[in-house]
Amino acid sequence: MAKDPLVVGLDIGASKIAVCVGSITEGVVSLMGVTSVGHGGMKKGMIVDIEETVSALSQALEEAEKMSGFPLTHAYVSINGSHVLAQPAKGVVAVARPNGEIQSEDVGRVIDAAKTIALPQNRELIHTFPHHFTVDGQDEIRDPIGMNGIRLEVDSLIISASSAALRNLIKTVEQAGVQIDGLVYAPLATARALTTKKQRDSGVVVIDLGAGTTDFAVYEEGELIHCATLPVGSMHITNDIAIGLRTNLDVAEAIKTKYGSVLPEKIRESETINLSSLDPAEDEKVSRRQICEIIEARVAEIFHLIREQLQAIGKDALLPAGAVFTGGGSDIEGLTELARKELRLPATVGFPIAQFSGMLDKLDNPIYACAVGLVLWGVEENQSGHGNTRYDFGKMGGLFDRFRGILRNFSN
Ligand SMILES: Nc1ncnc2c1ncn2[C@@H]1O[C@H](COP(=O)(O)OP(=O)(O)OP(=O)(O)O)[C@@H](O)[C@H]1O
Ligand SMILES: [Mg+2]
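Above: inputs. Below: predicted complex with adenosine-5'-triphosphate.
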């Protein structure tokens, strides 16, 4: 049976599940449904309550089905959490051919060789990105096909995830009646939505300030060079405010979203927030500057953790296209100004760069960046003819055989 023309992105975040439905018409992605449903079934990027997550997922799908007018049976799904790890991996093979000419089959073998890197038993490979090849000692080769040599090496970046977290994610999505077209590490889908090829060529970091996690992906010369998920997000700011003021979480959340800023020095010392305006049970007045000092401390900590990782890969303050922010947490006042200071990089809040038609109003909302990126990822896979990324849980070589799709870079 022919597959329907829809490409669906399903982003299971810590605070909400987002669904984005796209279809491609004359080269433009038409957004036919964009929706989200809040849930509490996830902690630190791992599903902790399958039933609650399935129920929220079913509700989100139902809403998106109503919007798009189609049943949604398959989707590209995000995977996230600090259990996902990126690491360099090398592969080496001999090219045993009389004329010594390297063919695509050899490239496939060497990429596979890099995939067999010793992953612990409880981890699964989710992506492999070959960076460059070495032929008989000559390095930095982009495409070795057609070259002559007897020893072919590859340097790649591989991304793996905890088997248990992956298994639970797959189970949850399948229980909601959705077949998985592909699993994509969340910051890679987000970066797909928010950056141009030019930015990725010159050097950029995309940072998604989510509820439970902050994830980021670093690109240079068009390649993904590092990505990670930190177990700290905007929810931690809410917790800090609740503890600092001894208020409940709803009041703390309202304070953060209505009065929050990461630039306390710009707030008059005399400015107060009347808590009774947020909750009739409260009667205190609190200093807005003090609250913003709490927020600044947490956001500065997140920036410090990112900077440590940029230092470790030798890119601290060295990404000319700067930091591009998204995620609900990026809505806080003063974020890019603090980022410029703390990360020593140009900083902006990003918006999807691809051309879309349809429900464009939702594109301004940073909580949808990952789901939109998943749709673009899927569209690109389908167009390049390498679609229907299978998952083959537990099979040698990991979850996906993406080899044919990965030599290409993003197209725009
Ligand atoms: N104006 C605002 N200021 C600060 N934080 C905000 C604002 N609006 C929303 N948030 C926070 O953004 C978070 C939700 O963002 P998002 O939907 O991107 O997270 P998520 O995808 O569910 O989580 P994760 O990416 O960690 O899995 C919540 O913690 C919410 O409090
Ligand atoms: Mg998210």
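The pocket of magnesium ion (ligand 2) is lined by residues 13, 208, 210, 327, 370 (CB under 6 Å).
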